[in-house]
Write a structure and sequence with these properties.
Length: about 350
């Protein structure tokens, strides 16, 4: 099995760390280089590429079955985009989160100071939703070990108890099919599996869910007619765009190019590719009698083996250590040789 886009990537190492940071495509590098050249020559500025923002909004919406561009807001990071949801909750409201959840998801609720944040095992999340639960916040795919949340079951539980559901798709978007109706609020960074930019993230909510929260850090970019209202603000956008913050246009350029490749390849094709590589790797680990966290995702974690990340790096295999485990992740630029190389280094104990 070869990589899905060999012309877009030239790797000098075995890169198995997309769960930390995705690699830029050739088209992204070219687009940013051209924008910088235009900027440095005085012939323009990154903001001249503002027309890419609505296009990027539309592309992101297409990753969700049932979403539209009007449901999408653009920001710089996941945690700031979650903050309006956290601030909209009444004092003492219960927020249910999974054990080991990534901190960007939990911190806006933990440090508000007057909420009840209850932590339960991921596998019991749906069972633990109760009438007192105001909101459940969870990642589709867990950062530390790749476990996948059963969103339809969790959604049914939140609906049954009148709770809202906020989902972080950062470790899922591009390889996992997503259904917009499976959550009230979605957030997603683009610099991992969407091979985008560290400075670009999204918040998504339909009109009914978006009406339950208010923008917090208001930006000129969130105005209904932003360029006409630079000096005389009149009204916020009536769509989810009212949650926009001023974009990093260079980041938008990179993210737009990255997501264009994702769309060309399709989520379905990337899903099959990534999972096939991860399955091959898990089979190899079993043959080596190495234990890993059970999951069906492109993220494979060997519990308690985080110290091996340094040895792998010295051998040219780039991974990451997370929560004490060795985390290895496979994406569209990886191939069978990458799987076999990682297994070869791990076998040399």
């Amino acid at each position: 099995m070869t990589s899905l886009a060999p012309d877009e990537f030239t790797l000098e190492a075995t890169y198995l760390n997309t769960a930390s940071y995705g690699l830029p495509s050739a088209r992204s590098l070219t687009a940013v280089r051209e924008a910088n050249a235009q900027w440095s020559s005085g012939r323009g500025a990154p903001a001249t590429q503002d027309h890419l923002v609505p296009q990027l909004r539309e592309s992101f919406a297409r990753l969700f079955d049932g979403a539209t561009a009007d449901d999408i807001a653009i920001g710089g990071g996941v945690a700031p985009l979650i903050t309006p949801v956290a601030l909209a909750l009444p004092p003492a409201a219960e927020v249910l989160v999974a054990e080991g959840e990534f901190a960007s998801v939990t911190m806006p609720f933990l440090y508000r100071g007057d909420l009840t944040v209850r932590t339960v095992p991921l596998e019991r999340l749906a069972d633990e939703v109760r009438p007192e639960t105001a909101l459940v916040a969870v990642s589709v795919v867990q950062s530390a070990d790749g476990r996948v949340t059963d969103l339809p079951t969790l959604r049914a539980a939140t609906n049954a108890h009148g709770a809202r559901l906020l989902v972080d798709a950062t470790q899922a978007a591009s390889w996992l099919p997503l259904t917009f109706a499976d959550a009230d609020y979605w957030v997603c960074a683009t610099f991992k599996w969407l091979i985008g930019a560290r400075s670009v993230a999204f918040f998504a909510a339909g009109p009914e869910a978006a009406a339950t929260v208010r923008p917090v850090s208001l930006s000129w970019y969130a105005a209904e007619d932003r360029w006409a209202e630079l000096y005389r603000p009149v009204a916020l956008a009536t769509t989810a765009r009212r949650f926009d913050s001023t974009p990093d246009w260079l980041g938008v350029i990179a993210a737009s190019a990255g997501i264009s490749l994702i769309e060309e390849l399709t989520v379905e094709k990337i899903n099959a590719h990534n999972l096939d590589l991860a399955d091959r790797f898990r089979a190899g680990l079993s043959a080596l009698d190495l234990a890993f966290v059970p999951s069906r995702s492109p993220i494979v974690t060997l519990s308690g083996a985080g110290d091996a990340a340094g040895r792998l790096e010295q051998a040219g295999v780039m991974t990451s250590a997370r929560n004490g485990g060795l985390r290895i992740s496979f994406h569209l630029y990886n191939d069978i040789d990458d799987v076999d190389r990682a297994l070869e280094v791990l076998a040399d104990r």
